[in-house]
Amino acid sequence: MIKRHKTAKELFSYPLYWAECYGISPFLPTTREEMDALGWDSCDVIIVSGDAYVDHPSFGMAVLGRLLEAKGYRVGIIDQPNWRNTEDFMRLGRPNLYFGVTAGNMDSLINRYTADLKVRNDDAYTPYGVGGKRPDRAVIVYSQRCKEAFHDVPVMIGGIEASLRRIAQYDYWSDEVRRSVLIDSTADILLYGNAERAMIEVTHQMAMGKTLDELTDIRGTTIVRNTPPGGYTEIDSTRVDWPGKVDQIYSPYEYIPEGKCQTKDEEEPDVMPIRVIPAPLRRGEKLDPEKTYIRLPSFEKVSKDPVLYAHTSRILHLESNPHNARALIQKHGKKEIWVNPPPIPLETPEMDGVFDLPYARVPHPKYKKARIPAYDMIKTSINIMRGCFGGCTFCSITEHEGRVIQSRSHESILNEIEDIKAKVPGFTGHISDLGGPTSNMYTLNCNDDEVQASCRKLSCVYPTICSNLNTDHSPTTQLYRKTRAVEGIHTVSIASGLRYDLAVEDPEYVRELVTHHVGGLLKIAPEHSEKDTLSKMMKPGMGTYDRFKRMFDKYSKEAGKKQHLIPYFIAAHPGSSDEDMLNLAVWLKTNSFKPDQVQTFYPSPMSLATAMYHSGKNPLKPVTYKSEDVYTPKDAKQRTVQKGFLRYHDPSNWQDLRNTLIKMGRPELIGHGDNKLVPAEEKDKQIRRRPQKAKPGQSTGASHTSNRPTIEKNIAAEKARRKNNNGSVAATPTKRRKTKIKSRQQ
């Protein structure tokens, strides 16, 4: 086990709360009747969630609820409450310590709207998949309702929706920069990322009698301050256009150090004032990171200046390593949003402890036989790790879970398989996934503690794999073999995302994966084929994909299996021009790929790609008003066309693609043949045209090749027949024949 540069108090070492005498509940209670059955008069903590309550380690409310229960606290669940009044928020009574509010496993807006801002009709985290059971911006709404129900009870917010909105953030749905969700929700504290450490520490301190106002320096938390704390050094990073010569600033801001009231008689305060250093001069200073914070441009500035927004986004991501990150501060009006450094990642024994808690592994019994789609998808899957050091700019995993990989032990994972066998109804012996954010980053981390302690790279694998990164997949390969050997297990699938640029570094792992864990199709995500767009995604080039495909095909053939790769791609990503999408479409056709499910870039809060989308600047490099511009397709029509390039084979896209190709000066790609992208319009019309059945006596308008004769043809044929029979042409048909023809014409 690698020893980290910074350590934290062991997660399970906190003393038990007095209520541990009540023991473990079959399910965390969701009603007063369930509380009565457990002998509880009240809850210590009440978790409010936008998801249905599934007691499974893939659901955040269950993880944190069971963890608090293991430390002796009585935890209740208010799942998917009716937010239109406070009645549902009062159904468990007043919590003794606090409300914990989360929108659920997904951001409520991403859960409700597509990338094209169309309303989704379903919600995978709701019984029967019914949509509309949670409000938009659920964290804000739930938190405010809790305050209305019990105004004096502290409210803690967390989960991915709150985590990605801890500072001012661009909001795609309203097309504006919004304030920190901590301000809008009126909550008292925000926990970001995987919150086990922060929640246990905060809960323990509150149980000891402290108020949230006193808990100002807990890692992984965001709070509201009136003034910055005294005794700190401030790195002023509120601007990008510093003059050529910057002088040191020694005068402090006009702040009274927190908790102190200075008078004219005081010659020297007990707490040293804030020392301010302009950002360009910080490199020459040796600063204590524990007593240093970075001042970001204020909400008022970033909401009006997209360049400052991109600059702020870059700072936030550079301060994401828990071993060297400094606190951040951002002014919102007269208030200060204070973001403490990220939490220290869980060590393997702590991860094991979290996943070994007594989960029922099924939805709460009150749902009876109602199907919850998200549960059906993960009920026999196993999460073996957390975090991602890939740094893909469009993804929010790193912002939420961090770059340091946190892995479970083989023993804990094998124990979970036994738990699944015992608790999941109808288990057939198929483990649907062994993975996490990525399936093959398990146990991979930096080889050098000192390097990791100082590293601020946004990715460990882009533009190339870092020389200090451990890429040995043997622990994962051994895990696969152990799980297949468990009695009663006949199939172990790998369904999580695969980093093929890492996989190719360990051919034995690829062989194991392809031979035993691919059920014919393997999904991977090159995301694009063009270098310029890939550079804005921080994704490897197609050369790595080609290398992996050769290995995949080789090992599939050796295993006697016919298997295929299913690549995923993104349209309309920042940096992606129509020319890039055209080249990607040509690559798809050349390689005989006809994607059915394609995605358009979705600007999620706080991601680097979203900063590009909003600002038109590249935060992967230092941002100035003259720094690199990034083009992003924003117009709905252009986004549709770029998505259409991914589905070049769909006739509904052909007309738009033809028009676009003509505008691009590429008409040679319109027509028929292997070197064409879409068919010509004439052929298109013939393909879509359906023959119409003529009414009695009506001409079909068919061409001369039609098998259906017209009345005029019938008359001419009759004349020709009679001429051949008697050598003369009858002037007119017989009276009887005339009658038949007249009848047909009518």
From TrEMBL:
<keyword id="KW-0949">S-adenosyl-L-methionine</keyword>
<comment type="similarity">
    <text>Belongs to the UPF0313 family.</text>
</comment>
<dbReference type="InterPro" id="IPR024560">
    <property type="entry name" value="UPF0313_C"/>
</dbReference>
<dbReference type="InterPro" id="IPR007197">
    <property type="entry name" value="rSAM"/>
</dbReference>
<feature type="binding site">
    <location>
        <position position="395"/>
    </location>
    <ligand>
        <name>[4Fe-4S] cluster</name>
    </ligand>
</feature>
<dbReference type="InterPro" id="IPR022946">
    <property type="entry name" value="UPF0313"/>
</dbReference>
<feature type="domain" description="Radical SAM core">
    <location>
        <begin position="374"/>
        <end position="643"/>
    </location>
</feature>
<keyword id="KW-0411">Iron-sulfur</keyword>
<feature type="region of interest" description="Disordered">
    <location>
        <begin position="669"/>
        <end position="746"/>
    </location>
</feature>
<dbReference type="GO" id="GO:0003824">
    <property type="term" value="F:catalytic activity"/>
</dbReference>
<dbReference type="Pfam" id="PF08497">
    <property type="entry name" value="Radical_SAM_N"/>
</dbReference>
<feature type="compositionally biased region" description="Polar residues">
    <location>
        <begin position="697"/>
        <end position="709"/>
    </location>
</feature>
<feature type="compositionally biased region" description="Basic residues">
    <location>
        <begin position="734"/>
        <end position="746"/>
    </location>
</feature>
<dbReference type="InterPro" id="IPR058240">
    <property type="entry name" value="rSAM_sf"/>
</dbReference>
<dbReference type="InterPro" id="IPR023404">
    <property type="entry name" value="rSAM_horseshoe"/>
</dbReference>
<keyword id="KW-0004">4Fe-4S</keyword>
<feature type="binding site">
    <location>
        <position position="388"/>
    </location>
    <ligand>
        <name>[4Fe-4S] cluster</name>
    </ligand>
</feature>
<dbReference type="GO" id="GO:0005506">
    <property type="term" value="F:iron ion binding"/>
</dbReference>
<dbReference type="GO" id="GO:0051539">
    <property type="term" value="F:4 iron, 4 sulfur cluster binding"/>
</dbReference>
<dbReference type="Pfam" id="PF11842">
    <property type="entry name" value="DUF3362"/>
</dbReference>
<dbReference type="InterPro" id="IPR006638">
    <property type="entry name" value="Elp3/MiaA/NifB-like_rSAM"/>
</dbReference>
<dbReference type="Pfam" id="PF04055">
    <property type="entry name" value="Radical_SAM"/>
</dbReference>
<feature type="binding site">
    <location>
        <position position="392"/>
    </location>
    <ligand>
        <name>[4Fe-4S] cluster</name>
    </ligand>
</feature>
<keyword id="KW-0408">Iron</keyword>
<dbReference type="InterPro" id="IPR013704">
    <property type="entry name" value="UPF0313_N"/>
</dbReference>
<protein>
    <submittedName>
        <fullName>Putative radical SAM protein YgiQ</fullName>
    </submittedName>
</protein>
<dbReference type="InterPro" id="IPR020612">
    <property type="entry name" value="Methylthiotransferase_CS"/>
</dbReference>
<keyword id="KW-0479">Metal-binding</keyword>
<feature type="compositionally biased region" description="Basic and acidic residues">
    <location>
        <begin position="669"/>
        <end position="685"/>
    </location>
</feature>
